[in-house]
Amino acid sequence: MKKLCVKAALVIASVFVVTFTAYITNADMKLVEKIYDWLIKYHDTKHVEEKL
Amino acid sequence: MTYDPKTGKGLGRFYDADHRALKYREWRGAKDTFYDYARWMKLYGFMAAELGPYAPQMARAMLRYRWMVPYLTAANMMDRHTIGQSGKDLRYSHKQFYSVLHHSVIKVKEILQRDENLNPGSERARKLRENTVMFDEMTPSLIMMGFPTLDWIDIAMMAVGMPSEVDQNSCMYYIDAIEHFGLAPDVCPEPATECGVAVVDDYAKVGKCYVTSSMPCDGAVQQTALMSRYLKGVSIFQITPPQRINEPQVQEYAVKNLKKAIRFIEDEMGVKWDWDAFWKNAAMYNQMAECMIEKWDVNSTDYPQVCGAALALQREFEFMGAACLDEYMLKTDREVTKMMHKGYEYDLAHGTNKPKYRCIVWACPAHYYTNFANWADLCWGVKCVNDMEAMLSYLPITVGDQEQALRDLARCYERMMMRSHTNGGYVNLLDELWKMCDRFNVNIVIMYDHVSCRNVGGLHGLFEDEARSRGIHLIWVPHDVMDPRTVSRREMRDAFNKYMVNVFREEPLDPTLLDYEDALAW
Protein backbone atom coordinates (compact mmCIF):
# COMPACT_ATOMS: atom_id res chain seq x y z
CA MET A 1 0.00 0.00 0.00
CA LYS A 2 2.81 2.34 0.97
CA LYS A 3 4.65 1.52 -2.25
CA LEU A 4 1.53 2.27 -4.23
CA CYS A 5 1.16 5.64 -2.50
CA VAL A 6 4.78 6.49 -3.21
CA LYS A 7 4.34 5.50 -6.85
CA ALA A 8 1.17 7.58 -7.13
CA ALA A 9 2.91 10.56 -5.53
CA LEU A 10 5.82 10.19 -7.95
CA VAL A 11 3.50 10.02 -10.94
CA ILE A 12 1.56 13.09 -9.74
CA ALA A 13 4.81 14.99 -9.09
CA SER A 14 6.17 14.06 -12.53
CA VAL A 15 2.95 15.12 -14.26
CA PHE A 16 3.03 18.37 -12.34
CA VAL A 17 6.68 19.10 -13.22
CA VAL A 18 6.14 18.33 -16.91
CA THR A 19 2.86 20.25 -17.24
CA PHE A 20 4.01 23.22 -15.19
CA THR A 21 7.20 23.46 -17.25
CA ALA A 22 5.12 23.34 -20.43
CA TYR A 23 2.80 25.99 -18.98
CA ILE A 24 5.39 28.52 -17.81
CA THR A 25 7.56 28.20 -20.92
CA ASN A 26 4.45 28.44 -23.14
CA ALA A 27 5.58 25.20 -24.78
CA ASP A 28 2.00 24.29 -25.66
CA MET A 29 1.53 27.42 -27.76
CA LYS A 30 5.00 27.10 -29.31
CA LEU A 31 4.02 23.61 -30.46
CA VAL A 32 0.65 24.89 -31.65
CA GLU A 33 2.49 27.59 -33.63
CA LYS A 34 4.34 24.90 -35.57
CA ILE A 35 1.14 22.92 -36.23
CA TYR A 36 -0.72 26.12 -37.10
CA ASP A 37 1.92 27.20 -39.62
CA TRP A 38 1.97 23.73 -41.18
CA LEU A 39 -1.84 23.65 -41.49
CA ILE A 40 -2.04 27.15 -42.97
CA LYS A 41 0.68 26.22 -45.47
CA TYR A 42 -1.32 23.12 -46.33
CA HIS A 43 -4.46 25.22 -46.90
CA ASP A 44 -2.47 27.68 -49.01
CA THR A 45 -1.38 24.89 -51.34
CA LYS A 46 -4.90 23.49 -51.78
CA HIS A 47 -6.61 24.32 -55.05
CA VAL A 48 -9.94 25.93 -54.20
CA GLU A 49 -12.51 26.89 -56.79
CA GLU A 50 -14.33 30.13 -56.01
CA LYS A 51 -17.99 29.75 -56.93
CA LEU A 52 -21.49 30.25 -55.66
CA MET B 1 1.91 47.52 -11.44
CA THR B 2 3.59 45.07 -13.79
CA TYR B 3 6.47 47.31 -14.88
CA ASP B 4 9.67 47.31 -12.85
CA PRO B 5 11.45 50.66 -13.32
CA LYS B 6 14.65 49.28 -11.77
CA THR B 7 15.10 46.50 -14.32
CA GLY B 8 13.09 48.08 -17.12
CA LYS B 9 11.11 44.85 -17.44
CA GLY B 10 7.49 45.19 -18.44
CA LEU B 11 4.80 43.22 -20.20
CA GLY B 12 6.16 44.11 -23.62
CA ARG B 13 8.90 41.52 -23.07
CA PHE B 14 6.45 38.67 -23.71
CA TYR B 15 5.90 39.60 -27.37
CA ASP B 16 8.13 38.28 -30.10
CA ALA B 17 8.01 39.97 -33.50
CA ASP B 18 9.13 36.76 -35.25
CA HIS B 19 6.68 34.38 -33.59
CA ARG B 20 2.98 34.01 -33.04
CA ALA B 21 3.25 32.57 -29.53
CA LEU B 22 4.28 34.62 -26.49
CA LYS B 23 7.87 34.02 -25.37
CA TYR B 24 6.77 32.53 -22.07
CA ARG B 25 4.01 32.89 -19.52
CA GLU B 26 4.02 35.42 -16.78
CA TRP B 27 5.06 34.75 -13.19
CA ARG B 28 2.41 36.60 -11.18
CA GLY B 29 3.47 35.50 -7.69
CA ALA B 30 2.96 31.94 -6.44
CA LYS B 31 -0.77 32.13 -5.68
CA ASP B 32 -1.85 33.75 -8.93
CA THR B 33 0.55 31.76 -11.10
CA PHE B 34 -0.75 28.47 -9.72
CA TYR B 35 -4.32 29.67 -10.13
CA ASP B 36 -3.57 30.50 -13.77
CA TYR B 37 -1.84 27.14 -14.22
CA ALA B 38 -4.84 25.30 -12.73
CA ARG B 39 -7.20 27.12 -15.12
CA TRP B 40 -4.90 26.27 -18.03
CA MET B 41 -5.07 22.60 -17.05
CA LYS B 42 -8.82 22.83 -16.72
CA LEU B 43 -9.20 24.27 -20.22
CA TYR B 44 -7.07 21.57 -21.84
CA GLY B 45 -8.78 18.90 -19.75
CA PHE B 46 -12.21 20.06 -20.87
CA MET B 47 -11.14 20.25 -24.51
CA ALA B 48 -9.65 16.75 -24.34
CA ALA B 49 -12.76 15.32 -22.68
CA GLU B 50 -15.20 16.91 -25.12
CA LEU B 51 -13.26 16.70 -28.38
CA GLY B 52 -11.05 13.65 -27.72
CA PRO B 53 -13.77 11.16 -28.73
CA TYR B 54 -14.02 12.98 -32.06
CA ALA B 55 -10.30 13.03 -32.83
CA PRO B 56 -10.68 11.63 -36.39
CA GLN B 57 -13.32 14.24 -37.28
CA MET B 58 -11.20 16.93 -35.62
CA ALA B 59 -8.19 15.99 -37.75
CA ARG B 60 -10.36 16.01 -40.88
CA ALA B 61 -11.86 19.37 -39.87
CA MET B 62 -8.39 20.93 -39.52
CA LEU B 63 -7.59 19.85 -43.07
CA ARG B 64 -11.02 20.65 -44.52
CA TYR B 65 -11.73 24.04 -42.90
CA ARG B 66 -9.16 26.80 -42.66
CA TRP B 67 -11.26 28.55 -39.99
CA MET B 68 -10.96 25.54 -37.70
CA VAL B 69 -7.18 26.03 -37.31
CA PRO B 70 -7.41 29.12 -35.01
CA TYR B 71 -9.35 27.07 -32.45
CA LEU B 72 -6.03 25.37 -31.64
CA THR B 73 -4.96 28.64 -30.02
CA ALA B 74 -7.73 28.75 -27.39
CA ALA B 75 -5.22 28.90 -24.51
CA ASN B 76 -3.54 31.90 -26.12
CA MET B 77 -6.94 33.65 -26.22
CA MET B 78 -7.06 33.26 -22.45
CA ASP B 79 -3.46 34.50 -22.08
CA ARG B 80 -4.12 37.60 -24.20
CA HIS B 81 -6.98 38.65 -21.96
CA THR B 82 -5.35 37.89 -18.64
CA ILE B 83 -1.83 39.20 -19.24
CA GLY B 84 -0.76 41.59 -16.48
CA GLN B 85 -3.70 40.66 -14.27
CA SER B 86 -3.64 39.31 -10.75
CA GLY B 87 -5.96 38.82 -7.80
CA LYS B 88 -9.65 39.23 -8.43
CA ASP B 89 -9.22 40.74 -11.92
CA LEU B 90 -7.45 37.57 -13.01
CA ARG B 91 -10.24 35.45 -11.55
CA TYR B 92 -13.03 37.49 -13.16
CA SER B 93 -11.34 37.23 -16.55
CA HIS B 94 -10.68 33.51 -16.27
CA LYS B 95 -14.25 32.70 -15.31
CA GLN B 96 -15.78 34.96 -17.94
CA PHE B 97 -13.58 33.76 -20.81
CA TYR B 98 -13.76 30.13 -19.78
CA SER B 99 -17.54 30.25 -20.14
CA VAL B 100 -17.11 31.59 -23.69
CA LEU B 101 -14.58 28.89 -24.58
CA HIS B 102 -16.73 26.25 -22.86
CA HIS B 103 -19.64 27.14 -25.13
CA SER B 104 -17.43 27.25 -28.23
CA VAL B 105 -15.90 23.82 -27.53
CA ILE B 106 -19.38 22.31 -27.24
CA LYS B 107 -20.45 23.93 -30.50
CA VAL B 108 -17.28 22.70 -32.25
CA LYS B 109 -18.13 19.22 -30.98
CA GLU B 110 -21.66 19.53 -32.40
CA ILE B 111 -20.19 20.51 -35.78
CA LEU B 112 -17.85 17.51 -35.70
CA GLN B 113 -20.76 15.22 -34.87
CA ARG B 114 -23.04 16.21 -37.72
CA ASP B 115 -21.13 17.92 -40.52
CA GLU B 116 -21.76 16.22 -43.86
CA ASN B 117 -18.26 17.04 -45.12
CA LEU B 118 -16.63 15.38 -42.11
CA ASN B 119 -19.04 12.45 -41.80
CA PRO B 120 -19.91 11.47 -45.39
CA GLY B 121 -22.50 8.72 -45.51
CA SER B 122 -23.02 8.64 -41.75
CA GLU B 123 -26.64 7.91 -40.84
CA ARG B 124 -26.14 9.22 -37.30
CA ALA B 125 -24.78 12.54 -38.60
CA ARG B 126 -27.69 12.78 -41.06
CA LYS B 127 -30.23 12.30 -38.26
CA LEU B 128 -28.53 15.00 -36.21
CA ARG B 129 -28.61 17.37 -39.19
CA GLU B 130 -32.32 16.72 -39.62
CA ASN B 131 -32.83 18.02 -36.09
CA THR B 132 -30.63 21.13 -36.33
CA VAL B 133 -31.45 24.71 -37.30
CA MET B 134 -28.59 26.82 -38.67
CA PHE B 135 -28.26 30.51 -37.77
CA ASP B 136 -26.39 33.49 -39.11
CA GLU B 137 -23.83 35.26 -36.90
CA MET B 138 -25.85 38.45 -36.42
CA THR B 139 -29.04 36.55 -35.59
CA PRO B 140 -29.19 35.43 -31.97
CA SER B 141 -30.90 32.08 -31.58
CA LEU B 142 -33.27 33.35 -28.87
CA ILE B 143 -36.22 31.97 -30.78
CA MET B 144 -34.96 28.47 -29.95
CA MET B 145 -36.14 29.07 -26.36
CA GLY B 146 -39.46 27.58 -27.48
CA PHE B 147 -38.00 24.58 -29.32
CA PRO B 148 -36.37 22.43 -26.63
CA THR B 149 -36.16 19.29 -28.76
CA LEU B 150 -34.20 20.95 -31.57
CA ASP B 151 -30.48 21.69 -31.81
CA TRP B 152 -29.06 24.84 -33.37
CA ILE B 153 -25.68 25.98 -34.60
CA ASP B 154 -24.65 29.48 -35.57
CA ILE B 155 -22.61 28.50 -38.62
CA ALA B 156 -21.18 31.97 -39.26
CA MET B 157 -20.28 32.61 -35.62
CA MET B 158 -18.30 29.38 -35.55
CA ALA B 159 -16.61 29.96 -38.93
CA VAL B 160 -16.12 33.73 -38.79
CA GLY B 161 -17.04 35.52 -35.54
CA MET B 162 -15.26 33.37 -33.01
CA PRO B 163 -12.10 32.60 -35.05
CA SER B 164 -11.70 36.32 -35.84
CA GLU B 165 -11.52 37.07 -32.13
CA VAL B 166 -9.23 34.15 -31.34
CA ASP B 167 -6.73 34.79 -34.15
CA GLN B 168 -6.20 38.12 -35.90
CA ASN B 169 -5.07 36.35 -39.09
CA SER B 170 -8.10 34.12 -39.49
CA CYS B 171 -10.20 36.21 -41.91
CA MET B 172 -7.71 37.55 -44.43
CA TYR B 173 -7.85 34.57 -46.77
CA TYR B 174 -11.65 34.74 -46.96
CA ILE B 175 -11.62 38.52 -47.51
CA ASP B 176 -9.18 38.03 -50.39
CA ALA B 177 -11.35 35.24 -51.83
CA ILE B 178 -14.52 37.34 -51.99
CA GLU B 179 -12.65 40.38 -53.32
CA HIS B 180 -11.09 38.15 -55.97
CA PHE B 181 -14.64 37.03 -56.75
CA GLY B 182 -15.62 40.65 -57.39
CA LEU B 183 -16.74 42.27 -54.15
CA ALA B 184 -15.44 45.81 -53.68
CA PRO B 185 -12.69 46.02 -51.05
CA ASP B 186 -14.37 48.88 -49.18
CA VAL B 187 -17.13 46.62 -47.85
CA CYS B 188 -17.09 45.87 -44.13
CA PRO B 189 -14.78 42.86 -43.61
CA GLU B 190 -17.33 41.13 -41.36
CA PRO B 191 -19.95 40.34 -44.03
CA ALA B 192 -17.15 40.15 -46.61
CA THR B 193 -15.54 37.31 -44.64
CA GLU B 194 -18.88 35.51 -44.33
CA CYS B 195 -19.24 35.72 -48.12
CA GLY B 196 -15.63 34.62 -48.59
CA VAL B 197 -16.32 31.48 -46.57
CA ALA B 198 -19.27 30.82 -48.90
CA VAL B 199 -17.42 31.26 -52.21
CA VAL B 200 -14.74 28.77 -51.17
CA ASP B 201 -17.47 26.47 -49.82
CA ASP B 202 -16.09 26.42 -46.27
CA TYR B 203 -19.31 26.38 -44.26
CA ALA B 204 -20.03 23.25 -42.30
CA LYS B 205 -23.17 21.45 -43.50
CA VAL B 206 -24.84 20.89 -40.18
CA GLY B 207 -28.54 21.65 -40.41
CA LYS B 208 -31.82 21.42 -42.23
CA CYS B 209 -32.85 25.07 -42.50
CA TYR B 210 -31.26 28.49 -42.01
CA VAL B 211 -32.46 31.53 -40.06
CA THR B 212 -30.89 34.88 -40.79
CA SER B 213 -31.84 38.51 -40.23
CA SER B 214 -31.87 41.80 -42.08
CA MET B 215 -29.08 44.08 -40.96
CA PRO B 216 -29.63 47.64 -42.08
CA CYS B 217 -26.19 48.14 -43.60
CA ASP B 218 -24.93 47.70 -47.14
CA GLY B 219 -22.45 44.97 -46.30
CA ALA B 220 -24.94 42.81 -44.47
CA VAL B 221 -27.54 43.16 -47.23
CA GLN B 222 -25.14 41.77 -49.85
CA GLN B 223 -24.04 39.08 -47.40
CA THR B 224 -27.62 37.85 -46.97
CA ALA B 225 -28.11 37.87 -50.74
CA LEU B 226 -24.93 35.86 -51.36
CA MET B 227 -25.70 33.39 -48.57
CA SER B 228 -29.14 32.77 -50.08
CA ARG B 229 -27.47 31.83 -53.35
CA TYR B 230 -24.88 29.68 -51.59
CA LEU B 231 -27.32 27.65 -49.48
CA LYS B 232 -29.04 26.04 -52.43
CA GLY B 233 -31.79 23.63 -51.43
CA VAL B 234 -31.88 24.90 -47.84
CA SER B 235 -35.01 26.76 -46.71
CA ILE B 236 -34.17 30.22 -45.39
CA PHE B 237 -36.12 32.60 -43.17
CA GLN B 238 -35.12 36.18 -42.54
CA ILE B 239 -36.09 37.71 -39.19
CA THR B 240 -36.55 41.39 -40.01
CA PRO B 241 -36.85 43.51 -36.86
CA PRO B 242 -37.95 47.12 -37.50
CA GLN B 243 -35.18 49.66 -37.82
CA ARG B 244 -36.86 52.47 -35.87
CA ILE B 245 -36.92 50.41 -32.70
CA ASN B 246 -38.02 53.12 -30.27
CA GLU B 247 -41.41 53.76 -31.88
CA PRO B 248 -44.29 51.77 -30.33
CA GLN B 249 -46.12 51.66 -33.68
CA VAL B 250 -43.62 49.18 -35.16
CA GLN B 251 -43.83 46.61 -32.38
CA GLU B 252 -46.95 44.93 -33.77
CA TYR B 253 -45.10 44.27 -37.03
CA ALA B 254 -42.08 42.92 -35.10
CA VAL B 255 -44.27 40.37 -33.29
CA LYS B 256 -45.95 39.28 -36.54
CA ASN B 257 -42.52 38.72 -38.06
CA LEU B 258 -41.45 36.60 -35.10
CA LYS B 259 -44.62 34.53 -35.29
CA LYS B 260 -43.82 33.84 -38.94
CA ALA B 261 -40.31 32.75 -37.92
CA ILE B 262 -41.80 30.38 -35.35
CA ARG B 263 -44.17 28.94 -37.97
CA PHE B 264 -41.24 28.54 -40.39
CA ILE B 265 -39.27 26.47 -37.88
CA GLU B 266 -42.37 24.45 -36.96
CA ASP B 267 -43.07 23.64 -40.63
CA GLU B 268 -39.47 22.90 -41.58
CA MET B 269 -38.59 20.83 -38.54
CA GLY B 270 -41.95 19.20 -37.88
CA VAL B 271 -42.19 20.29 -34.24
CA LYS B 272 -44.46 22.57 -32.22
CA TRP B 273 -43.54 25.67 -30.23
CA ASP B 274 -43.43 24.70 -26.54
CA TRP B 275 -44.57 27.46 -24.16
CA ASP B 276 -43.49 25.58 -21.03
CA ALA B 277 -39.94 25.33 -22.31
CA PHE B 278 -40.08 28.95 -23.39
CA TRP B 279 -41.06 30.15 -19.88
CA LYS B 280 -38.23 28.15 -18.37
CA ASN B 281 -35.67 29.53 -20.82
CA ALA B 282 -37.06 33.07 -20.56
CA ALA B 283 -36.53 32.90 -16.81
CA MET B 284 -32.92 31.88 -17.45
CA TYR B 285 -32.51 34.77 -19.90
CA ASN B 286 -33.90 37.15 -17.26
CA GLN B 287 -31.44 35.92 -14.64
CA MET B 288 -28.52 36.44 -17.02
CA ALA B 289 -29.75 39.96 -17.83
CA GLU B 290 -30.01 40.71 -14.10
CA CYS B 291 -26.40 39.63 -13.59
CA MET B 292 -25.38 41.94 -16.43
CA ILE B 293 -27.22 44.89 -14.88
CA GLU B 294 -25.60 44.21 -11.52
CA LYS B 295 -22.19 44.38 -13.19
CA TRP B 296 -23.15 47.71 -14.75
CA ASP B 297 -24.32 49.06 -11.40
CA VAL B 298 -21.04 48.17 -9.73
CA ASN B 299 -19.05 49.58 -12.65
CA SER B 300 -20.91 52.89 -12.28
CA THR B 301 -19.32 53.35 -8.86
CA ASP B 302 -15.79 54.50 -8.03
CA TYR B 303 -14.72 50.86 -7.74
CA PRO B 304 -15.57 49.07 -11.00
CA GLN B 305 -14.92 45.33 -10.98
CA VAL B 306 -15.55 43.26 -14.13
CA CYS B 307 -14.14 45.49 -16.84
CA GLY B 308 -12.87 45.52 -20.42
CA ALA B 309 -13.21 42.47 -22.63
CA ALA B 310 -14.10 40.25 -19.66
CA LEU B 311 -17.35 42.17 -19.43
CA ALA B 312 -18.04 42.78 -23.11
CA LEU B 313 -16.99 39.61 -24.88
CA GLN B 314 -18.69 37.33 -22.41
CA ARG B 315 -22.01 39.18 -22.79
CA GLU B 316 -21.61 39.30 -26.55
CA PHE B 317 -21.25 35.52 -26.74
CA GLU B 318 -23.81 34.85 -24.05
CA PHE B 319 -26.43 36.79 -25.99
CA MET B 320 -25.39 36.48 -29.63
CA GLY B 321 -23.66 33.10 -29.59
CA ALA B 322 -25.41 31.15 -26.86
CA ALA B 323 -28.72 33.08 -26.95
CA CYS B 324 -28.78 32.95 -23.13
CA LEU B 325 -29.57 29.24 -23.42
CA ASP B 326 -26.35 27.95 -21.87
CA GLU B 327 -26.74 26.89 -18.24
CA TYR B 328 -23.00 26.92 -17.73
CA MET B 329 -22.95 30.60 -18.62
CA LEU B 330 -25.68 31.31 -16.06
CA LYS B 331 -23.70 29.41 -13.44
CA THR B 332 -20.65 31.53 -14.31
CA ASP B 333 -22.73 34.73 -14.17
CA ARG B 334 -23.88 33.88 -10.67
CA GLU B 335 -20.36 33.03 -9.49
CA VAL B 336 -18.81 36.15 -10.99
CA THR B 337 -21.59 38.37 -9.61
CA LYS B 338 -20.99 36.99 -6.14
CA MET B 339 -17.22 37.47 -6.45
CA MET B 340 -17.75 40.95 -7.85
CA HIS B 341 -19.83 42.10 -4.87
CA LYS B 342 -17.19 40.76 -2.52
CA GLY B 343 -14.46 42.52 -4.50
CA TYR B 344 -16.41 45.76 -4.50
CA GLU B 345 -16.95 45.65 -0.73
CA TYR B 346 -13.24 45.07 -0.22
CA ASP B 347 -12.18 47.93 -2.52
CA LEU B 348 -14.73 50.28 -0.97
CA ALA B 349 -13.59 49.46 2.58
CA HIS B 350 -9.89 49.82 1.74
CA GLY B 351 -10.14 52.53 -0.92
CA THR B 352 -8.12 50.38 -3.33
CA ASN B 353 -8.17 49.86 -7.09
CA LYS B 354 -9.73 53.18 -7.94
CA PRO B 355 -9.00 53.65 -11.66
CA LYS B 356 -6.72 56.46 -12.73
CA TYR B 357 -8.96 57.16 -15.75
CA ARG B 358 -12.38 55.76 -16.56
CA CYS B 359 -13.62 55.22 -20.08
CA ILE B 360 -16.27 53.47 -22.09
CA VAL B 361 -15.82 51.86 -25.47
CA TRP B 362 -18.18 52.88 -28.26
CA ALA B 363 -18.94 51.80 -31.82
CA CYS B 364 -18.04 48.58 -33.58
CA PRO B 365 -14.81 47.08 -32.14
CA ALA B 366 -11.90 45.42 -33.90
CA HIS B 367 -12.44 41.68 -33.74
CA TYR B 368 -8.72 41.20 -34.25
CA TYR B 369 -7.88 43.22 -31.14
CA THR B 370 -10.37 42.20 -28.47
CA ASN B 371 -7.85 42.90 -25.71
CA PHE B 372 -7.30 46.52 -26.72
CA ALA B 373 -9.09 47.80 -23.60
CA ASN B 374 -6.86 45.56 -21.44
CA TRP B 375 -3.84 47.09 -23.11
CA ALA B 376 -5.14 50.65 -22.48
CA ASP B 377 -5.55 49.78 -18.81
CA LEU B 378 -2.08 48.23 -18.46
CA CYS B 379 -0.23 50.84 -20.49
CA TRP B 380 -2.06 54.02 -19.46
CA GLY B 381 -4.31 53.19 -16.52
CA VAL B 382 -7.45 53.86 -18.58
CA LYS B 383 -10.04 51.39 -17.29
CA CYS B 384 -12.93 50.48 -19.55
CA VAL B 385 -16.01 50.31 -17.30
CA ASN B 386 -18.44 49.44 -20.05
CA ASP B 387 -18.50 48.63 -23.71
CA MET B 388 -21.16 49.09 -26.34
CA GLU B 389 -20.82 45.38 -27.17
CA ALA B 390 -22.12 44.54 -23.70
CA MET B 391 -25.15 46.81 -24.08
CA LEU B 392 -27.35 44.35 -25.87
CA SER B 393 -30.94 43.77 -24.83
CA TYR B 394 -31.19 43.54 -21.06
CA LEU B 395 -34.89 44.17 -20.39
CA PRO B 396 -36.73 41.13 -19.01
CA ILE B 397 -39.05 38.82 -20.90
CA THR B 398 -42.45 38.69 -19.21
CA VAL B 399 -43.05 35.15 -18.03
CA GLY B 400 -46.64 33.87 -18.22
CA ASP B 401 -48.20 36.34 -20.68
CA GLN B 402 -47.86 34.95 -24.21
CA GLU B 403 -48.48 38.13 -26.23
CA GLN B 404 -46.33 40.30 -23.97
CA ALA B 405 -43.58 37.68 -23.98
CA LEU B 406 -43.46 37.75 -27.78
CA ARG B 407 -43.30 41.55 -27.70
CA ASP B 408 -40.39 41.25 -25.26
CA LEU B 409 -38.69 38.65 -27.45
CA ALA B 410 -39.09 40.94 -30.47
CA ARG B 411 -37.48 43.72 -28.44
CA CYS B 412 -34.51 41.41 -27.81
CA TYR B 413 -34.07 41.03 -31.57
CA GLU B 414 -34.40 44.79 -32.03
CA ARG B 415 -31.59 45.30 -29.54
CA MET B 416 -29.18 42.67 -30.76
CA MET B 417 -25.62 43.41 -31.79
CA MET B 418 -25.17 46.14 -34.44
CA ARG B 419 -28.90 46.84 -34.64
CA SER B 420 -29.25 48.40 -31.19
CA HIS B 421 -26.55 51.03 -31.65
CA THR B 422 -24.34 51.20 -34.73
CA ASN B 423 -27.27 50.67 -37.08
CA GLY B 424 -29.90 52.06 -34.73
CA GLY B 425 -29.80 55.63 -36.00
CA TYR B 426 -28.93 58.95 -34.41
CA VAL B 427 -30.83 58.48 -31.14
CA ASN B 428 -29.46 55.04 -30.36
CA LEU B 429 -25.93 55.62 -31.53
CA LEU B 430 -25.19 59.24 -30.67
CA ASP B 431 -27.56 60.35 -27.90
CA GLU B 432 -27.20 57.05 -26.09
CA LEU B 433 -23.45 57.59 -25.74
CA TRP B 434 -23.83 60.74 -23.66
CA LYS B 435 -26.37 59.01 -21.41
CA MET B 436 -23.87 56.21 -20.85
CA CYS B 437 -21.07 58.70 -20.12
CA ASP B 438 -23.28 60.19 -17.38
CA ARG B 439 -24.36 56.85 -16.02
CA PHE B 440 -20.83 55.45 -15.83
CA ASN B 441 -19.25 58.71 -14.78
CA VAL B 442 -16.66 58.78 -17.57
CA ASN B 443 -15.13 61.60 -19.55
CA ILE B 444 -13.12 59.42 -21.95
CA VAL B 445 -14.61 57.42 -24.80
CA ILE B 446 -12.52 55.00 -26.80
CA MET B 447 -14.27 55.65 -30.08
CA TYR B 448 -13.67 52.80 -32.48
CA ASP B 449 -13.40 54.21 -35.95
CA HIS B 450 -14.32 51.29 -38.17
CA VAL B 451 -12.96 52.54 -41.49
CA SER B 452 -15.40 50.51 -43.61
CA CYS B 453 -18.58 51.38 -41.71
CA ARG B 454 -20.67 54.03 -43.43
CA ASN B 455 -23.26 54.17 -40.65
CA VAL B 456 -20.90 55.31 -37.91
CA GLY B 457 -18.70 57.23 -40.35
CA GLY B 458 -21.69 59.37 -41.31
CA LEU B 459 -21.98 60.64 -37.73
CA HIS B 460 -18.27 61.29 -37.22
CA GLY B 461 -18.51 65.09 -37.22
CA LEU B 462 -21.57 65.12 -34.99
CA PHE B 463 -19.78 62.96 -32.42
CA GLU B 464 -16.88 65.43 -32.44
CA ASP B 465 -19.09 68.51 -32.02
CA GLU B 466 -21.19 67.01 -29.24
CA ALA B 467 -18.21 65.62 -27.35
CA ARG B 468 -16.43 68.96 -27.49
CA SER B 469 -19.45 70.79 -26.13
CA ARG B 470 -19.74 68.27 -23.28
CA GLY B 471 -16.04 68.22 -22.39
CA ILE B 472 -15.67 64.53 -23.24
CA HIS B 473 -12.43 63.15 -24.66
CA LEU B 474 -13.20 61.11 -27.76
CA ILE B 475 -10.14 59.04 -28.58
CA TRP B 476 -10.64 57.82 -32.12
CA VAL B 477 -8.98 54.47 -32.69
CA PRO B 478 -9.13 53.38 -36.35
CA HIS B 479 -9.49 49.72 -37.31
CA ASP B 480 -10.95 47.48 -40.00
CA VAL B 481 -12.84 44.94 -37.86
CA MET B 482 -11.42 41.70 -39.27
CA ASP B 483 -8.60 42.86 -41.49
CA PRO B 484 -5.47 43.92 -39.57
CA ARG B 485 -3.70 44.67 -42.85
CA THR B 486 -5.68 47.91 -43.20
CA VAL B 487 -4.98 49.14 -39.66
CA SER B 488 -2.69 46.99 -37.55
CA ARG B 489 -2.90 46.48 -33.80
CA ARG B 490 0.28 48.52 -33.54
CA GLU B 491 -1.32 51.44 -35.41
CA MET B 492 -4.36 51.25 -33.15
CA ARG B 493 -2.13 51.53 -30.10
CA ASP B 494 -0.22 54.39 -31.72
CA ALA B 495 -3.43 56.43 -32.19
CA PHE B 496 -4.24 56.00 -28.51
CA ASN B 497 -0.67 56.74 -27.39
CA LYS B 498 -0.64 60.01 -29.32
CA TYR B 499 -3.79 61.22 -27.57
CA MET B 500 -2.52 60.30 -24.12
CA VAL B 501 0.83 61.98 -24.71
CA ASN B 502 -0.30 65.09 -26.57
CA VAL B 503 -3.63 65.86 -24.87
CA PHE B 504 -3.29 64.39 -21.37
CA ARG B 505 0.50 64.91 -21.18
CA GLU B 506 0.63 61.49 -19.55
CA GLU B 507 3.49 59.09 -18.92
CA PRO B 508 2.81 55.39 -19.61
CA LEU B 509 2.53 53.04 -16.64
CA ASP B 510 4.44 50.43 -18.62
CA PRO B 511 6.71 51.97 -21.30
CA THR B 512 7.44 48.51 -22.77
CA LEU B 513 3.83 48.39 -23.95
CA LEU B 514 4.05 51.68 -25.87
CA ASP B 515 5.38 50.22 -29.08
CA TYR B 516 6.01 46.60 -29.98
CA GLU B 517 5.44 44.43 -33.02
CA ASP B 518 2.68 41.82 -32.86
CA ALA B 519 1.58 41.50 -36.48
CA LEU B 520 2.25 37.76 -36.45
CA ALA B 521 0.66 37.09 -33.06
CA TRP B 522 -2.69 35.34 -32.81
Can you describe what's shown?
The complex is a heterodimer of chains A (52) and B (522). With 52 residues, chain A is mainly α. Chain A contains 2 helices and no strands. Chain A has helices at residues 2-24, 27-45. The model of chain A has no long low-confidence stretch (mean pLDDT 95). Chain B is an alpha/beta fold and 522 residues long. Chain B has helices spanning 30-51, 55-64, 74-82, 87-114, 123-130, 155-166, 172-181, 189-199, 218-230, 251-269, 275-299, 308-321, 327-350, 372-380, 402-414, 425-439, 454-457, 460-470, 489-502, and strands at residues 132-135, 151-154, 209-213, 235-239, 357-362, 382-387, 444-450, 473-479. Chain B has a 4-stranded parallel sheet with strand order 2-1-3-4, sandwiched between helices. A 4-stranded parallel sheet of chain B has the order 6-5-7-8. The two termini of chain B are 25 Å apart. Classes of the chains: A mainly alpha (52), B alpha/beta (522). At the A-B interface, helix 1 and helix 2 of A face helix 1, helix 3, helix 7 and helix 9 of B.
Q: Give the uncertain stretches of chain B in residue-range form.
A: none
What helical percentage do the residues of chain B reach?
Answer: 40-55%
- Percentage beta strand of chain B: 5-15%
What is the string of helix and strand elements of chain B?
Answer: HHHHHEEHHHEHEHHHHEHEHHEHHEH
What is the overall shape of chain B? Answer: globular
Q: Count the helices of chain B. How many?
A: 19
Measured between the Cα atoms of the first and last residue of chain A, the distance is: 67 Å
Query: pLDDT average of chain B, as an integer?
Result: 94
Unreliably modeled segments of chain A: none
Radius of gyration over C-alpha positions of chain A, nearest whole angstrom = 21 Å
- Euclidean distance between termini CA atoms of chain B: 25 Å
